[in-house]
Amino acid sequence: xxKLYLLRHSKSQWNxxxxxxxxxxxxxxxxxxxxxxxIAEKLDLKNxxxxxxxxxxxxxxxxxxxxxxxxxxxxxxxxxxxxGGKMQKWGNFDRLRDIDVPTYVSEKLNExxxxxxxxxxxxxxxxxxxxxxxxxxxxxxxxKPPGAESFNDTLKRVLPFFKKYILKDxxxxxxxxxxxxHNSLRAIVKYIENIKDEDIINLELPFGALVxxxxxxxKFTKT
Length: 223
Description:
Distance between the termini: 13 Å
Family: Belongs to the phosphoglycerate mutase family. BPG-dependent PGAM subfamily.
Oligomer: single chain
Mean pLDDT: 97
CATH architecture: 3-Layer(aba) Sandwich
Order of helices and strands: EHHEHEHEHHHEHEE
Keywords: Glycolysis, Isomerase
Number of domains: 1
Enzyme class: isomerase
Radius of gyration: 17 Å
Structural class: alpha/beta
Number of strands: 7
Helix content: 25-40%
GO molecular function: phosphoglycerate mutase activity
Strand order of the largest sheet: 3-4-2-5-1-6-7
Protein name: phosphoglycerate mutase (2,3-diphosphoglycerate-dependent)
């Protein structure tokens, strides 16, 4: 049996400022830094078996991982890039030691791209466009602001990666943690729990939210 830990990054500076972050690379807030360490303590991370971590390219996710492993004196994440280019060719190292936690990084797990509203204040956006359209843009399956990805677009980006890498590792019995953004994690949860398209609007994962599954005989069980 393998375990899958899905963790949303802790609160970033733009989350604190109530702005649509999307792919904009803003760091953790002071609250988020503290929150990451609290998550590690709650998980008892120094005694938790984690064979590998998967994450995206955004600093708020990578910093969440780093802050968590600040609490583990004898281990640290070693970032391994999966998107090609020189970072994958020149930067990856496969002779891992016991202290290295392989942490695979790909923009396939990045947050949904918010197009024209990326960087805007959420409350001001809601006042300008109205509550109904605002909620459709944020959470509905097909709704999307101008120039943006819909949730369905994000799902189509995330799921092939999930199946190619994460599901494959789980099938080998590896215990994995995925530290990612809200909509990439919502996509994974939708797939695992077979949530209907029309019901995905109701799925919310707060900052630092953790969802845990057992994986056995190609089936997920939420714990």
